[in-house]
Amino acid sequence: MQMKKDIHLTGRDLLGMVQVKPGDFGKYAIIPGTAERRDAILEHLEKPVKSFSFFEYTMYTGFYEGIKIAVGNGGRFSPDSAIIAEILCAGKVECIIRAGSCGALDETIKVGDVVLATGVVRGDGVTPYYVDKDYKTVTDVSVTAALEATAKENEVSIRKGLIWTTDALLRETRELIEKVKKEGAVAVDMVSSALLTIAQLNNVKAASISAVSDNLITGELGFINPDYYEAEARVVKVCLDAVKKLAQGS
Asked: 3-class SS at 85?
């Protein structure tokens, strides 16, 4: 017996499962990965309301200076980033911003710096199910420009470049790092490829900005470094103000 449907479960199916209707999220979504970072964003929002919980992931909507924003802790790894991206796209969100963390692939990028992605070097295991190997995943120009302008207004220095996404955190080898550096990658994460690729396929504007937690070239580990946590706070503020800029059309 063959499957009754071409695809067993779609983003629209998931949206129905969590009992959310298209449009309920509003136009803008910020996806911060960890629950702690999500909660830090929620502190800036007025009237936050839980939209849904799915496994250990919870999405809220609230208002930042009158602008409705969806905020959820999905997006820590490629599979859950794909699920959240599918739900948001099915929910008719128009703009998705990843507020994340990354490892630097350049010795001049320090823990506590901020990296703004211009595109993706895809090394994850999810996107090959969506696109072929030659597909180019890029960030939306207008959303990236808003993030860059807002960072400047907030006196946040940024480094721009490609983000390499991998699923194998403990297999970031010297040989592999040199390969992706030659392809133009300046940082690595475990999210941007799936999130941005699925958004791009659905004609949803998306971008990625991250605080640097470690440096793969120098070996510096900054996961408990105060500079990293301060950078996370700066990224949160930049993302919120970028949404405001986008909503105002400036």
From this structure: helix
